[in-house]
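A common beginner's mistake is to predict each chain separately and then try to dock the pieces by hand. The better habit, illustrated here, is to supply every component at once so that their relative placement is modeled jointly.
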Amino acid sequence: MDYLATFASSHAALRAEQVCRGEALPAELIPLPSQIRGDCGFCLLLEGGGEAETERRLQRLRSLGAVALYRVRVDQPSPSSRKVKSYERCP
Amino acid sequence: MSDVLRTLDARGQACPQPVILTRKALADGGFGLLEVLVDDASSRENVARFASYAHCVVERIEEEGPVSRILIRPMAVGPDQPGRVFARPEPAAPAFPAAKAETVLIAAAGIGGGDEHLAALLMRAFLYTLTEGETLPVRIILMNGGVRLAVEGSESLINLRRLAERGVEILACGTCLEFYQLKDALAVGRVSNMYEIAGLLLQGATLRV
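With all components supplied together, the output reads:
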């Protein structure tokens, strides 16, 4: 399962990415999906990882100022159709 | 061999299927002339363009009602491979229909002036967004500082690789790689030259980033 972490500003997302990089915590800085918020910005994408490892990474992102975490759902109605991503906010 | 005619009936096939079938037929070879039948204008143009790009001669395009008949003569590359083409690696067909801009020209490592860090970040974000998109360009041409995106250690390398996996051809200017002493560091795509690049930029719609 992949997760997204959003931040209060692009600068905050950048700072968090720098820290993650220093700690070898895999988090990719990507443009904020428009389904989450219409304005421009960045967020961090966490891909893969086991349950415990993901929880550790999410905790770290919270401590780095993540304001919201989203679970990324990927739906593909049939093998030939396009993958559609949706984002479910974590409590 | 030169008189053998093969017919490829791609009528009713949605784009990019006619191009894929044409590519396969040309790769299989064994004929002197390939006749491709298509029934829509964009397939006709895409097949003819692909054939030219694959070093074939488009001898004639005949139209009868909605059906176009494209006659393609492959260029033989060796006596033991009559009719086979592809003297150079061919791009895989995009998994999705090509975007309106066939070529994306990236001539810097970042987008726009201003803060260099932000410019680099915007380029990363742009390439990532392309990977997520429904429509893809046929190719990305990297020139000047843009070649730095395709070398080992580049933060954009992963996204260029993802695009390459989806069939987008990545071309890097050889002069630029040499100038920056990065010729051995190219990690995705292939080296191109000004003749090819100029031809491609003039061939279809180009988006300059």
